[in-house]
What does this fold into?
Amino acid sequence: MTHSFIKNQVQTGKRVGILGGGTAGATIAIRLAALGLETYLFEKNASLIDGPPMCHLHAGGNLYREIPDEDCVALLKQCIDILRLYPYTIDVRPTVFAVPTRDEGSPEDLLPRLDTLTDAYRDLIAQDSNNKVLGDPENYYQLYSHEQLIELSEREQVAVPSTVDEWMIPVAKYLDLNKVKFPLIVVQEYGWNIFRLAASAQLALEGYEHAHVFTDTQIQQVMPVDCENCSNADHHVTKWRIDYQQATNQQATNQQATDQQATGQQTAHSEQTESIEVDYLINACGFRTGVIDDMVGVKVTRMVEFKSSYVTHWEDTGGQIPEIIIYGNRGTPEGMAQLTPYPDGYFQIHGMSKFITLFDDGLVASSTNSAQPELPQQYVHYIEDGWDKTPLQARSQQAIDYVAEFVPTFNSARTVGNALFGGQQIPGEDDTLRVADVSLYSNIRYARAENVKASSTLIAADQIVDELTSLGLIDHDTQANRNRYAHEWSYLVHNDSSGIDKVARLLAEQRGFPVAMADVNHGIREATLDDLSVDKTVL
It folds into this structure.
């Protein structure tokens, strides 16, 4: 680490290994390093939090008509929680939900849930006034009739909207009002920027002296070190050994293998592999979670789904527009359409049909022989090496055409040869599951993060902290732990939006995306950020 801004950290002497540097692994690492645990985070890619596709803060789960109300309330709580950890990642603009005329559902069907969510948001603010990050509860959602939209369509568009009416002007102008039912629903569900999330996590971890981040690193094996009754099902493990290989060593090994193969020699992998022993092991490998489960010897049922969204550019917006959701039945030719705005006319598109975001053979399950579902090799190739140009171009154009069914002028948008994609893990056998966090195996000091939505990662970290406390590895009643529940995150004192901008733009460029996609149109208001500031006297 290049510097440390965290004062008065209590060093526990205990080590935790976290495998996987996605949103779950990085967030858990921040949480544990703040408590003084020597935290070792291993990530295969060159930077943290690099997929799968995400763009939406599900503060209420309103994209998912099929999930129960209690899951929606859970998503609301989780999103407010994670927003307060990563405030500079949020693009503050509403989301417009429309039920198409071809759909059997009705907008009125959604209103009881929205009222429940409004009440839940009001209760969260009553518990802590700093939870008021989505605006006033009374404005959590609003309805727009056909008559209101006709009136708004006649107004001049505002380039930088500041009221809900102003946000709705381009919707009234561009959306084909003959293809949707009324009222339209406008909800304060914001955008969530993956490049800014990666930048925030990177900067946060750089400040903790107990955080040790290994990117470009491949896990070779994990093995129990101290194991009691290892032959029994109820055996106990108190230490794990992690064997890993960093990219430079991996390249050296590959070259050595090539040279030795040419000369008939055997490769000595042990000379290139490094090891570390940890007191607790956390599996946060995302869609590859089953690989580590197999190494550990844990039997579990899960699914993995390959999904993709597509980056396009649309010059004819006339200014900023909200996110637009057209409901549909997942997996059918009329699945949900999602148009997500970024600065400078860039848009990310999801179309929840099997010719856009989903794939005929993209959902796979684990087997009796392995906890790791096997994706078709083509999708593994896309994840590891990038999309092939021809199918990417075809699916991107299909995404544009799909949105243009409801936003006709969007047919002038163009593909830009980019996609946000990846494998998503789904615990169990229910592919509609949207709320899950962590599984704990106390007897072997092992945890598996199984976050379907990134917003649940901080809750997962809390559960792991409780587990480490019960195992005697850390003390629960510490100032650092109280800071978390007061949302006093130290990196926010030492980093502002401009610092996040710089790192996020670099990450976007390194990953081959337009630099503008690392920015937001509307950041969290300064007044809100002031409320979220840390009391420096407790650090």
Observations:
- Confidence is low (pLDDT under 50) at residues 1-10, 257-270, 534-539.
